[in-house]
Write a structure and sequence with these properties.
By secondary structure, this protein is an alpha/beta fold. The protein contains 16 helices and 23 strands. It catalyses: Catalyzes the rearrangement of -S-S- bonds in proteins.
């Protein structure tokens, strides 16, 4: 349930679930079994350790290495995709190979490469072990393969003449072409850098004078070409999406066959900004949320999403897309317009928004940085009404719509008090009580792992006169002034005026919890423990834009 999981997008925020368990350090060399430099494989993945790592680097020009922990749930879920990608790349003639290191056993390698979370993927090029590149692609087989292929070949195709350029531009739905008079210039190198990272787009580069002349260019320029399909299946016009200057505001609308981005001679080409703009402008003006488009939607890094929930089987509701699309151009780059079919792929995200299929059609805007949701009047679907509503939200004139479950009848009779959005304020900010609250998600494995300790803590303090142990399901309840960015999050609300809040970030066991409570919301000073290996101290699952946990266990 892609969106529901930690939305439950950064609609709750490419990706896997997580586990938290205490890992046991395994000896690097088992007694009587000394490791050699032989390269062994498991499911097409090279099994690496301290004794064969150098050999692997010398024999494989491009080696993507996963540093993992056997107990890590993220790693366990990545394993099949990683093996699939390894097999696919192994059967290709290119130099790309995949390997893995058990970082809990190979402590020296983990320390050498600064491994602080699991899994960590690093790319080693041409045997260089001092400048490994961080993996930035999707955590699935297709994403890994595409990322490695891009690095195994030129990131941009050199276009030699007008015929090859014309064929190239028309070859894909989305094509980016950089025109540079000097392919060794800083601007061209920045362009190559973007081309290496943005593996889901096709990049070309040109330096020939005849190509500058053919495309009417006189200075170094980046052009983005895109074919945009209309709403009707099988139809739609072809449109080239404009790319504005990196130093100019985003356009309110686009309707040209080609728009150029001239490189500023003084400022040059900023790779990060170009990447962001390519992500923004690679999207259609209005997207439909599907399995195929979800990665595009959330990788665009657009700060607000305006959602139209509708039932596509209703012709009346489908007609609402016209006004929705008409409003979109004014907010391009600031607000992404998305249509969600409540009876299709989008059905699973409805609980996150507190909606049922019968609530369609509904309009909702969400701020991606904090998951704040704003409901629009369901009777107003004109483009003018939509633009007015969005601008009011952006101007801070609309209050967010906060979800709240109904409190259980016995919510305050249990050792651990069950809080909801409606009851949180009166309990957490009771000036006569010290309240310790666990903010959790039902699906979160870290939360499940500490559930027994939290219940035991509740039992220990259930009769205490001024200490309250409580919990709140953050997937079903939202608070106006508190944003939860990971699960579980523990906050302590001390008695007295001032509405104070202290985040607890220490060990999650009953005795440490008790020391914290008995000491008034702090832990007594103790000498730091010395450990030979990093320990998992946070074990928190972070919401992500795709509505799933982050892909790594932090150490």
């Amino acid at each position: 349930l892609v969106w529901l999981l930690v939305l439950s997008l950064a609609w709750l925020g490419p990706a896997l679930g997580g586990e938290e368990e205490d890992g046991t350090v395994v000896a690097e060399e088992e007694e009587g079994n000394v490791l050699s430099d032989e390269l062994r494989e498991e499911d097409g993945v090279l099994v690496l350790h301290e004794h064969n790592f150098a050999r692997a680097l010398s024999e494989h020009r491009l080696l993507l290495v996963e540093f993992y922990a056997p107990w890590c749930g993220h790693c366990q879920r990545l394993a099949p995709a990683f093996a699939q990608a390894a097999t696919e790349l192994r059967n290709e003639p290119g130099p790309a190979r995949l390997g893995k290191v058990d970082a809990t056993a190979q402590v020296a390698l983990a320390n050498e490469f600064g491994i602080t979370s699991y899994p960590t993927l690093k790319l080693f090029c041409d045997g260089n072990r001092t400048h490994a590149l961080a993996y930035t692609g999707r955590m699935d087989a297709e994403g890994i393969v595409r990322w490695m292929r891009r690095r195994a070949s030129p990131s941009a195709t050199l276009l030699q003449d007008t015929d090859t350029a014309a064929t190239f531009v028309s070859s894909q739905d989305l094509v980016v072409v950089g025109f540079f008079k000097d392919l060794e210039s800083e601007a061209a190198q920045a362009f190559y850098e973007v081309a290496s990272e943005v593996v889901d787009m096709t990049f070309g580069v040109a330096k020939a004078a005849e190509l500058f002349q053919a495309y009417g260019l006189s200075v170094d320029t980046v052009c983005l070409f895109k074919k945009v399909r209309g709403w009707q299946e099988g139809g739609g016009a072809i449109l080239v999406l404009p790319l504005p200057s990196l130093h100019q505001p985003l356009p309110q609308q686009f309707d040209e066959g080609r728009t150029d981005f001239p490189v500023d001679p003084a400022r040059g080409l900023d790779a990060a900004e170009l990447t962001r703009l390519l992500r923004v402008h690679s999207l259609e003006l209005v997207m439909e949320f599907t399995k195929e488009t979800s990665d595009q939607i959330f990788s665009a890094q657009i700060p607000h999403h305006m959602l139209l929930f509708l039932n596509k089987s209703s012709s009346v509701q489908l007609a609402l897309r016209d006004g929705f699309r008409a409003a979109a151009g004014a907010f391009r780059g600031e607000v992404l317009f998305v249509v969600v079919d409540v009876t299709g792929y989008g059905a699973d995200v409805l609980p996150f928004f507190g909606l049922m299929p019968a609530d369609a059609p509904t309009l909702c805007l969400i701020k991606m940085e904090n998951n704040r949701k704003y409901r629009m009047d369901q009777d107003a679907f004109s483009d003018t009404a939509i633009r007015t509503f969005i601008q009011a939200v952006l101007d801070g004139k609309v209050k967010p719509h906060l979800l709240s479950a109904e409190p259980p009848e016995d919510w305050d009779m249990r050792p651990v008090k069950v809080l909801v959005g409606k009851t949180f304020e009166q309990v957490a900010f009771d000036e006569t009580k010290n309240v310790f609250v666990k903010f959790y998600a039902p699906w979160c494995s870290h939360c499940q792992a500490m559930a027994a300790a939290w219940e035991e803590l509740g039992e220990r303090y259930k009769d205490h006169e001024n200490i309250v142990i409580a919990e709140l399901d953050s997937t079903a309840n939202e608070l106006e002034n508190i944003t939860i960015s990971g699960f579980p999050t523990l906050h302590y609300f001390p008695a007295g005026p001032g509405r104070k809040m202290v985040e607890y970030k220490n060990a999650r066991d009953v005795e440490t919890f008790s020391k914290f409570l008995e000491n008034g919301g702090t832990l007594p000073e103790e000498p730091p423990a010395v450990s030979k290996t990093p320990e998992n101290s946070t074990g928190r699952e972070e919401p992500s834009p795709l509505g799933t946990a982050e892909t790594r266990d932090e150490l």
